[in-house]
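Escalated from tier 1: beta-D-fructofuranose holo job.
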Amino acid sequence: MKKNIISLIIFIAFFISAKNIFAQKSNLLYKELHRPQIHFSPKAHWMNDPNGMVFSNGVYHLFFQYYPGATVWGPMHWGHATSKDLIHWKEQSIALYPDSLGYVFSGSVVTDKNNTSGFGKKGTVPLVAIFTHHNMAGEVAKRNDFQNQSIAYSNDEGKTWKKYEGNPVLKNPGIADFRDPKVIWYEPQKKWIMTLATKDRITFYSSADLKTWIKESEFGAQLGAHGGVWECPDLFTLNDNGKQVWALTVSLNPGAPNTGSGTQYFLGNFNGKTFTTAQTNTKWIDYGPDDYAGVTWSNTGSRKIFLGWMSNWMYATQVPTINWRSAMTLPRTLKLKHEGNDIFIASAPVAELLANSSKPIVLNNISIKNNFDLSAITKNISFPCRINVSVVKQDFSIKISNKTGEEILIGFDKKTNHYFIDRTISGNTNFNAAFAAKHTAPRISTSNTINISLIIDAASAELFADDGLTNMTEIFFPSKPYNQIHLQSAENIIITKLEYVRLKSIH
Ligand code: FRU
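Tier 2 regenerated the structure:
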């Protein structure tokens, strides 16, 4: 008996110390130099696109393209994380594994409230994942039918998943790039609509039960940007003063405004069969190089929340992180905004972000002669933080830097009417020749006042200019953390308002 008690005590002590060591190790993982402090990144290993984002019973689910075997792309799984506030994430066990039909590529998740699929048991509302099965052998053999759409379901709120035995549910008609299904419920005709990226266009399919799909129409072969293959589309409505406008977002790689990967959008109408638009100009969700494959959460009603992968296929597998590779952008609320005779999607970080912030430091009417050091006002410059600036339209920049002379410059150039982010001397840039660069984005607003909001994390900057009309996302890798903020202008200018808010780490 005594021996048993001693063994039990030894076992418990061992269990507690192993748990502590594991917790410490996983804590340390989030202290790596470039580890985002307010953005989701998996504990370890490779991540790309967000997948299957769905809101269910008070929980936001974020699945993602994940390779648990290395920090480079490999056989794709769906990783899984959950959050109650879109900011603090808890990583869950892997949701979907590759199988004999192939790797599990990008896709979406729906809440099948009417149990149209029949997967719900005893009144549960099943979560149904619709994804691309990518058959590597088929790709290597240069076949043109190696990407097919499949489904899986969960009756326990995404904890465990079962793949449907009738997979694939949508077979490839002979198009090599045939992937990334985003499915929505189209209430007027009580049917599911799948928006699928099919090489250089979007193909819409419909279904009554998520298992049988028929082709409805194609869109976009002659419209928008076509510098690369179309991927990861989304179709949703946005409110325009009480009227519904349909938005179709399409990622493409390469062919983005600052080269590499980017996401364009079209505004128009969808009638259950075809998407139409009067739009002739190309519009981008984000002009920076590091916001790709973004889509919106399902089942969030009229609130549309968008999130992208904060990287670019040009260098994603080479960025100098150690245990992990890639983070997501902040979740962003999308709204329509009129400018002149045109209409745009404007983005803003979700309001939940600021729930965990310090009291803002607000300065009014500061005059800048060449250079203004924010540390003159607050000794405590630290990142992550949000900096808001209001200024009459003129040249200015914000320099984020460290004492070794590494910096990123974010600003506005009046002559060209462009915003810019310059990461040429931002730190470690030599892992890819295209990385060290100055990127620009056209100003869409015609207002005489510039309002920008800038969110800086350990290795990223997200610029929301003019209430989110022009946005830029950029990553960077300083050799020491940035700890200085300067406002700069070649002329003497007055910053009408400057607000600095420290954001607390989510780890
Ligand atoms: C976009 C993408 C998708 C594909 C996935 C594979 O970044 O190429 O089209 O499903 O990544 O990981």
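The pocket of beta-D-fructofuranose is lined by residues 48-49, 65, 76, 105-106, 132, 179-180, 231-232, 293 (CB under 6 Å).
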